[in-house]
Amino acid sequence: MSKKFITHEIESNGKFKRQKNRFTAPFGAEEGNLPVEAGRYRLVWSPACPWAHRSVIVRSLLGLEDAISLGTLDPVRPDVERTDWAFTLDENEEDPVLKIKYLSEAYLKADPDYKGRFTVPAVVDLTTGKVVNNDYFNLTRYWEVEWKKYHKPGAPDLYPEELRAEIDELNQILFHEINNGVYKAGFARSQEAYEEAYHLVFHRLDWLEERLGQSRYLFGDKITESDIRLYVTLVRFDVAYYNGFLLNRNLISDFPNLWGYVRDLYSQSGFGDTTDFQAIKKHYHLCAVSSNPYGIVPKGPDFSIWKIPHGRDRIKF
Predict the structure, then answer these.
(1) What average pLDDT does the segment 83-96 reach?
(2) Where is the GST C-terminal domain (predicted)?
């Protein structure tokens, strides 16, 4: 996301205020909901984007790959006068299923008057070629609850009923202070707005560091929806947010518990195998950082450190 494209999301005091999602119809059996049908939808993502990444992690953990196909966008935005994403990684630079070159085509087919940024994740209905959902905040919960009949045998319960109220409460905190908090710092247009976001993020990271000293994951010894939401920000922090978004008080690798925790998740199927550090570095340093006129992508860090044994499985409750 180039900063030149987000002026409408900057308030008069220099604070970044993220745009609302346009396509928020839920999945489900009720009238007006999107029907839950295997093979009907295509999830479009970029491995650079944390909001999209978490929907792909959940899709993998639950075994929904055969029910929901996946289209992948280039992490580097196309040189066009809009906030678009392009299918330049595919043959003929078009999605092989949707037969489009830009994500905007599916958005504008759904709403020709759409004026916002073209965001991922985006769920496209293959019967119409239109985007029907770009509600990143709720999409993973639809995969977990409404798509349960398509889960693989033995799939984890990422949103257990007895914890839903606590998970929802923590997810709100993670969104405002971590997931979107890093963007509040990185896209701030005043020193005051930047420092407020800076302190917000590190205050919550300190809190999470303490919490994760008491349990392997955020809610005990089982991975939940909240862990996935935290993971996608932590895994991008040292390679993108620390320097690109000026969140330079500490690296995640400076926090013993957070560093072990994110390596624990990274080592597991669905997490590490969907994490593309090169795509992350390219996107943030070429598209999201304004002070990089020569288009230089950082060479490091040494990613072998992600395979250092984490020891989190030894935590007692």
Answers:
(1) 97
(2) 160-284
**85 is known to lie in a ligand binding site:** yes
Is residue 183 annotated as part of the catalytic site, yes or no? yes
49 in catalytic set: yes
pLDDT tens sequence across 148-181? 999 999 999 999 999 999 999 999 999 999 999 9
Task: Kindly tell me the burial class for residue 301, based on how many C-beta atoms sit within 10 Å of its own C-beta (0-12, 13-18, 19 or more).
Answer: middle
Of 107, 136, 183, 231, which one is the catalytic site residue?
183
- Segment 243-269 mean pLDDT: 97
In this structure, the strands spanning 122-125 and 41-45 are antiparallel
Specify the pLDDT at position 2.
Answer: 41
DSSP tag of 217: B
Whether residue 118 is annotated as binding a ligand: the answer is yes
> In this structure, what token pair is assigned to residue 138?
């709720």
In which order are the strands placed within the sheet that holds 122-125?
69-72, 41-45, 122-125, 130-133
Confidence of residue 7 (pLDDT cuts 50, 70, 90): low
List the Cα angle 297/77/186 in 5-degree steps: 65
Rounded Cα gap, residues 159 and 165, in angstroms: 10
Dist. CA 260–CA 234, nearest whole Å: 11
Hey, what amino acid is at 270?
A: G
Please tell me what DSSP assigns to residue 221.
S
**Bridging pattern class, strands 122-125 and 69-72:** unpaired
